[in-house]
């Protein structure tokens, strides 16, 4: 049985968690990616910077870091770390609600675990299309 968990190291509001978990599980089904377990950890800028430096050798702030923990060929097991502070900043800069931006980032992490990248312009364009697809699906339910 697949398990999706939310952990809050930094306080944030995440409403309708059951619906969100169902939508994330549906995303994995649609993408034909078996899911075993997925942890979303909501934290702050400093914690995510430390993770970025320690594990990725990057010395900058980011809104999300996704770790695929599954052995090759096994169902997905992953940890997704999200900086609530960075998401709030990004939402302000983009002129959208924090709630919508937070969900975009959540789906972004799940899509990474389904094999979508964002390193090239072509990958980033496809990632945005997929984020929008799942945002539309979630918010029109």
From TrEMBL:
Q: Kindly report, in one word, the top-level EC class recorded for this enzyme.
A: hydrolase
Note whether Hydrolase occurs among the keywords.
yes
Which of UniProt's keywords are assigned here?
A: Cytoplasm, Endonuclease, Hydrolase, Metal-binding, Nuclease, Ribosome biogenesis, rRNA processing, Zinc
Enzyme Commission no = 3.1.-.-
The family database entries (InterPro entries) matched by this protein are listed as: MetalPrtase_cat_dom_sf_prd, YbeY
Give the primary localization class: cytoplasm
Instruction: Give me the residues that bind Zn(2+), please.
Output: 108, 112, 118
Subcellular location per UniProt equals: Cytoplasm
**Cofactor or coenzyme needed:** Zn(2+)
Taxonomically, which superkingdom? Bacteria
Cofactor binding comment, as recorded: Binds 1 zinc ion.
Q: Which PANTHER family match?
A: ENDORIBONUCLEASE YBEY, CHLOROPLASTIC (PTHR46986)
Indicate the family of this protein: Belongs to the endoribonuclease YbeY family.
What this chain does, per the entry, is described as: Single strand-specific metallo-endoribonuclease involved in late-stage 70S ribosome quality control and in maturation of the 3' terminus of the 16S rRNA.
Q: Could you tell me what this protein is called?
A: Endoribonuclease YbeY
User: What species is given as this protein's source?
Assistant: Terrimonas rubra
Name the gene behind this protein. Answer: ybeY
């Amino acid at each position: 049985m697949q398990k999706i968990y939310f952990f809050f190291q930094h306080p944030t509001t995440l409403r309708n968690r059951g619906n969100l978990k169902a939508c994330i599980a549906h995303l994995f089904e649609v993408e034909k990616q078996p899911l075993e377990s997925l942890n979303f950890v909501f934290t702050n800028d400093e914690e995510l910077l430390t993770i970025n430096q320690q594990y990725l050798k990057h010395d900058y702030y980011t809104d999300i870091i996704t770790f695929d923990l599954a052995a090759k060929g096994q169902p997905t097991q992953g940890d997704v770390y999200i900086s609530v502070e960075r998401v709030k900043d990004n939402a302000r800069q983009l002129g959208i609600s924090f709630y919508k931006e937070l969900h975009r980032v959540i789906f972004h992490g799940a899509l990474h675990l389904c094999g979508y990248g964002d390193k090239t312009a072509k990958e980033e364009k496809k990632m945005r299309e997929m984020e929008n697809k799942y945002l539309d699906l979630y918010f029109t339910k």
